Each structure stands twice: as C-alpha cells, then as structure tokens.
Amino acid sequence: MPTLNDLDTPALTVDLDVMEANLARLQNYCNAHGLGLRPHIKTHKIPALAHKQLALGAVGIACQKLGEAEVMADAGITDILIPYNLVGQRKLERLAVLTRRARLTVAVDSAEVARPMAEHLAGEGVEAGAVIELTSELNRCGVTDTRTAAALAREIAGGRGLRFRGVMVYPSSAKSMPLVSETLAALRAEGLAAEMVSGGGSPTAYRSHEFPGLTEIRVGTYIFNDWSYVRDGVCTLEQCALKVITTVVSTPAPERAIIDGGSKTFSSDMGVPMGHVIEYPPAVIYKMNEEHGFVDVSKCPRKPKVGERLTVIPNHACGMMNMHDEVYGIRGDTIEAVWKVAARGRVK
Amino acid sequence: MPTLNDLDTPALTVDLDVMEANLARLQNYCNAHGLGLRPHIKTHKIPALAHKQLALGAVGIACQKLGEAEVMADAGITDILIPYNLVGQRKLERLAVLTRRARLTVAVDSAEVARPMAEHLAGEGVEAGAVIELTSELNRCGVTDTRTAAALAREIAGGRGLRFRGVMVYPSSAKSMPLVSETLAALRAEGLAAEMVSGGGSPTAYRSHEFPGLTEIRVGTYIFNDWSYVRDGVCTLEQCALKVITTVVSTPAPERAIIDGGSKTFSSDMGVPMGHVIEYPPAVIYKMNEEHGFVDVSKCPRKPKVGERLTVIPNHACGMMNMHDEVYGIRGDTIEAVWKVAARGRVK
CA B165 from chain center: how many Å? Predict the structure, then answer.
C-alpha cells in the first residue's frame, strides 16, 4: 500500500480526518439552524467530494462557472446554482442544454443579463431558476438598490425562460443585511415570494443564523480551510486539511532554504507569508518564484537540510486547487484516495 | 472557418504574427552574436511551440521541472537542460529513465544534490550532463563562492553518472558577471573546461553579448511578452502576443465594469494593474477575485457595456499559461491553431 513517503513532491494532499470533521461541523450547524448548506465546489472541483457533501445533507451545489457545472452534471449532480452572470451567446446555448440535465438556478444583476437569457431559454422551451444578486461591501457585481431589484424581479416573474426564485448576496455579512431585508420587503409588497435567499462565504458561515431571512449558504473553503483563514482567525491550524508535501532542494545560505514548490504549486494569492511550514513553525515563506519557494529559516533553532520534506499549509485553498490535476486523500500515512481535479481550469 | 468572435470567453489567444516576430528577433540576435538560444518552455508548455523554436535555430530547450521534460521528450525533443536541483529518490529514478530518451543536462548547486544523483545514474549505467548553478542578485539557489564551485566541479568531473559541462546563472545580469568570470578562471586553472556557460532571463536577453564567456541563454517569456514587461520597459505593447478575450458581465456602478476573468484566468502574479485592456487604454484592472476582474473605467470617456468583449494583455505570461488547458493561435480574426498546454501542471 503506498504511503505519504512514496509520493513525489510537490504533492497536494488532503487530510481526510480533518476534512470530514470540517464537513460534519458546518452541516451540523446548518441542520441545527434550519439552514440549507450549498457547498461551493469552486474550492475542490472534485465530483467525489461534491457527492460526499450532498450525502451529508447539502441541498445542492454552487458552481462559479458553467464549465464547472457541466462537469458536476456529468457526475450526476442535479441541483446547481451558478451565482454568476452568464453572458454571451455560447454560454446561453450551453445553459439551455444543461437545464435538460439538472435543476439550474442562475444569478442575474441586470436586465442586460436577464433578458437575452430568458429569451434564449424560452426559445429553447426550457427554464432556469433565477435569483437576483444584490451588492455588498465587496463592491463587485450586484444590484445596488431595492427599487431596481424589485423591477428586475417583476420583469423575470412576468416573463418566460426564467423562473424568479429570490435573491443572493456575497458575502452574507452584517453589512449586507439592510439591503437584503429591504429588498425582501419590497418583493413581498409586490406579492413576489423569495423562496431562496442565498448567502455565502466561509468566514461568516457560523453566523448565518443571525442573518434575517437567509434560507441557505454557499460556502467553499470550509471543506479544507487554509493559512489565510488561520491568519484571519477564521479557523485553527488543526482544522486545515490541505497539506502540500515539498522537498528542500537548496540551502544556499544559513538563513535560507528553497523548496520545490512556488507560485505554480501554491498560487500567488493572499500575500506574505505564503503558507505555513508545519515542521518549522518559526520558518517564513517570504517569496515565491514559479517553481521555487523561498523560506526564511533564520529563526529556526534547527535548520532544514537538502532532501528534507516540509509540509506546507497553503495560503489559498481555491487558487491552489485550480492548478493541480491530482490530489491525494490521506489518512495517517496511508493514501486512501487519488482524485482527479475534474473541473480544474473550466474558466468558461 | 471559426473566428475570434466564435470563441467563448475567457479565451486565451496567441497573436501568431506577433509571436513569430518575437521568436525571429531574438534568434537573429543570438545568431549575430554567436550565442546559443535555449528557449525555456516553462512559459508556453506546448510541444508544437518548442519544435517551432528549434526549427528556427534553438540549440535545445530548458524545462524547469522533470515532468515538463518528460512531456517534451514524449514529443521527440532530445536536448534538454533542467536548470533546477532534482532531489529525491523518485526524481532520480525518473531522471535515469529520461536520459535514455534525451540528452539531459541538469543543474546542481551542492554536493548534497550532486552525489546521490551521480550515484543513482552511475548505478543505472547512464549519464547526464551537469552544470553548476551560481548565485545571483535573486538570492535564490546557487553556489555563492568560486572555491566551492570549483570543488563541486572537481568532484563531478572525477566521478561517474554526471559529466561536468560548465556553469549556469539566473538572471545573467551585469551583477552576475564577476562570480561567473571568477569561477570560469578557477575552473580553467584546474584544467576543467566549461563548454556551457548558460545565462537566462528575457529582460536581459538583448545584452547577452556583453556578458563575458556566455555560450547560451535560457529565455522563456520572449515568445509572448506580457504587461509586466511593458511596464518595466522590456518590450512594447505591440510586441505582446498573449491576449485574453473576456466579456463584461456587469456594470454595477458608473466607474466599475466586471469581466469574466479573474485570478483563475490570469493568476495573481505581478500586482496592480493586473493587465491592460486594449480597447480602453485608460481602464485599470485594479483587483481580481477568482472569476471576477474588477475594472476601473472612471477615466474612460466611453464606458464598456454588458456583453462587450474586452481584450486583455495579461500581467504574467508564464503564470497564466499554467492554468489553461487550451490556447488558440490567431492570425487576424482567424483561428489557425488550437494547442493543448501539454506540460501544464507538471509540478513534479
């Protein structure tokens, strides 16, 4: 049976005990509060893990891209929310095809997005659910005022091709509450029922019961967690399931070790320090080139040697998974699973 | 015949006219100065492009990872330099196999790297060329003094499994000259001929003839160039061959447009601005989430609309290519080639 030590490096591994505890913890929380848990698969992009989340009680999944949704539908998953404006003729054609295989809900934040979509789907004789994206402190997409949101909801509800289902926001932080509440009130006043009020974001996940009217949360990173979450106090080091096995390839100066993983292994996301070395807590990953990780070991009483393996908790789970073709599921020292990151690179 | 407008977005395209001019320009420079051009395929990871570079006169290729070299050897490429310390039993086994298929040269910067490698290769009855990596202002890997370099060269030249070929440095900037020159003198004094003095880096490529003793340059980005090079004055905007076709999916505020490509399309490399929008030169890509690009259009007299396509020159060619499965070769509006990024994700 192959073990951790047999893996060539850099190797992306998932600690299965930690992952399973992460999954159960949030599902239990959602169950306790009558909230739907809709895992965002952009984090792992692996159908087997999506099925695991559904088996634990998830109400469906979220995919950030149509291409991810196609991969998940291929794997037999049937309730999919795409919280992203789908724009362009090819996307509408693909969406229409996908509605025949899965129960699709999409987000829209303008009539410019909703109209051609509704028209195309109606022309194909199919329908998708639609939620209206509301803006947040992120200042990304989203309708910025209640009146526009209600008008868009009215237009969708009065037409064909799209079925009005409610609203979404990201993140569902305290700052997002007023606009969501006001919009829900405005919709009620027009007799438009919001059966879905979808919030999102792992950092705020455990406060979702404080968000008035929320019916479900879209969360991705909670399955693995990462070093940026530890830094921000969202989780503990022990709750991090993604671990990258690297090898020290050079120790050219007493204060510096170079590992065989850089920005093409870890991504450049989330700044310095660029991950955490489990075996050398005082070590600091201070820079990455594409295939080199620069580790400052000046504060380590014992220094790592060439050939030694270092286990790194990565900065950003989602950015990292998107660069790897294969991930190893590990229990103790045993490789229990090898997963293909099937929806990796589906940027369209 | 499919055209640019038929491509779903985000789509990674290569302007073939620009790429071919970039390739010819540096090859002509190297020919004029009697320098070997060894393209670093980490940038494109596409065998067909490596073959194109060789057909133009390249002396061989460089691969940053053994896995990339395996892909290129599969494609029939036979002269490969890996300017990277290969460490670990599995890597040595793979290296031994690869030496039977291609003329391999590897870099080493310590006896801890060279000894197990030489022993393993000798045990398998095979041999690889070896160059000694010298340090540079990058403070990454590399031997830091002439005496250590000469001792390592002596050890390699006196043993089996590795054949001493010379030295390498990255980047081959003016600051790297003294250590390289002193090391070459020390080697000559010991009767050790350096047949290969390998420099690298696209930004310094056209000054390589000023570097005493250089026999070849390893360069990757020159094939495409990117926005970080334009910013740094290394190339012009017109010399950028990589172009990403994106779609505006939201214009939630007068000053903001959101495009359907973020850090999972472009990488987070090289900071802000995160690329350049050709159709709207005053626009600034000021932030990226995974699938959202945030564009400040406040300085644009005419604002982009939802559904409009924006062509973006990416910040970092190498980081970006590593996330894409497919790239389109474009001439004018015609798609002339669709390449699989075959060595993508080969981090091992």
Answer: 22
Helix pair angle (A177-189, A146-157), 10° resolution:
50
pLDDT band for position B138 (50/70/90)? very high
Q: Best interface-test mutation with A: which of B12, B179, B250, B297 has the largest number of A CBs within 10 A? A: B250
Cis status, amide bond into B171, omega within 30 of 0: yes
Show the 3-state SS of A131-183.
EEEECCCCCCCCECCHHHHHHHHHHHHCCCCEEEEEEEECCCCHHHHHHHHHH
Name the DSSP class of B6. Answer: G
Q: Which of A17, A66, A74 is nearest to A48 (CA)?
A: A74
The DSSP letter of residue B192 is -
* Residue A141 distance to chain B (closest CA, Å): 6
Q: Which of A138, A260, A322 lies closest to B323 in CB terms?
A: A322
The residue-averaged pLDDT of A271-297 equals 97
List the single residue in B87, B249, B345 with the smallest CB-CB distance to A87: B249
Q: Is A141's CB within 8 Å of B305's CB?
A: no
> Using the beta-carbon criterion (under 8 Å), do B112 and A305 form an inter-chain contact?
yes
A32: closest CA of chain B, how far (Å): 31
- Using CB atoms, which residue from A9, A112, A249 is nearest to B307? A112
CA distance A329 to chain B (A): 18
Tell whether pTM > 0.95. Answer: yes
- The predicted structure's pLDDT at residue A2: 78
Radius of gyration of chain B measured on its C-alpha atoms: 22
pLDDT at A59 over 90: yes
Rounded to an integer, the average pLDDT of A189-193 is 93
According to the model, what pLDDT value does residue B2 have?
Answer: 78
Residue A317 dihedral angles phi and psi, to the nearest 5°: -55, -50
A225-235 residue pLDDT tens:
999 999 999 99
How many A/B residue pairs have CB atoms within 8 Å?
173
Determine whether the interchain pair A263/B263 forms a contact, defined as Cβ–Cβ distance below 8 Å.
no
User: How far is the C-alpha of A268 from the C-alpha of A314, rounded, in Å?
Assistant: 10
Measured between beta carbons, which residues in chain A are less than 8 angstroms from residue B65?
A: 291
B68-82 per-position pLDDT tens digit: 999 999 999 999 999
pLDDT at A35: 98
Q: Do A140 and B264 touch (CB under 8 A)?
A: no
Question: What's chain B's average pLDDT?
Answer: 97
What confidence score (pLDDT) does residue A153 get? Answer: 98
**Cβ atoms within 10 Å of A232's Cβ, excluding its own:** 10
Buried b (16+ CB within 10 A) or exposed e, B208-239: beebeebbbbbbbbbbbbbbbbbeeebbeeeb
Chain B positions touching A112 (Cβ under 8 A) are 305-307
Q: Shortest CB distance from A307 goes to which of B8, B88, B269?
A: B88
pLDDT of residue A56: 98
